[in-house]
Amino acid sequence: MERKIYYSPIERAFLFSDVHGPASLPSARANPRYPSDAVEVSEAHYTALMAAQAAPNWSTIEPGAEGVPQAVPASDERVGMFLRMERDARLAASDVLMLPDRWGGYSENEQAAITSYREALRDLPAQPGWPRNITWPELPQ
């Protein structure tokens, strides 16, 4: 049985026939698991929507004409929010490098490289292309 995909504008959710069952039951009545506004979406359209949500696009999925979902490009504010989250995660991951028991084991050059890396992460929002065109600093080896 071929999987069918549906989108509900009210729920802003996708439903899948292989998970939620068929849209209509053998008795020809609607499946109660499907909202009444659910519209069928092709596998290709669904795949394109999922790709549009990924970095660096971070598009949102919104109901379009007749409830068919469409990818809406993210605002600079939204892209900046995601980039700050990534930046914060990279800073947190490098916190361990700053622990006193490790810090003393690095050479002065290594300490300077780590400090510069973390400083560059904190300064990302000040880059001229923020948030659409930035260069991530490289973690020192």
Chart the SSEs and their pairings.
Elements: E1 5-8, E2 13-16, H1 17-20, E3 39-41, H2 43-53, E4 60-63, E5 69-72, H3 76-94, H4 100-103, H5 108-122
Antiparallel strand pairs: 1-2, 1-3, 4-5
Helix pairs in contact: 3-5
Helix content: 25-40%
Please summarize the sheet with the most strands. Answer: 3 strands, antiparallel
Strand order of the largest sheet: 2-1-3
Oligomerization category of the chains in this entry:
single chain
Shape: elongated
Describe the overall structure.
With 141 residues, this protein is of the alpha+beta class. It folds into 2 domains: 5-72, no CATH class; 76-126. It contains 5 helices and 5 strands. The strands form 2 sheets. Strands 2-1-3 form a 3-stranded antiparallel β-sheet. It has a two-stranded antiparallel ribbon with strand order 4-5. The longest helix is centred in the middle third of the chain and has 19 residues, at 76-94. The N and C termini lie far apart (51 Å).
Give a concise summary.
The chain is of the alpha+beta class and 141 residues long.
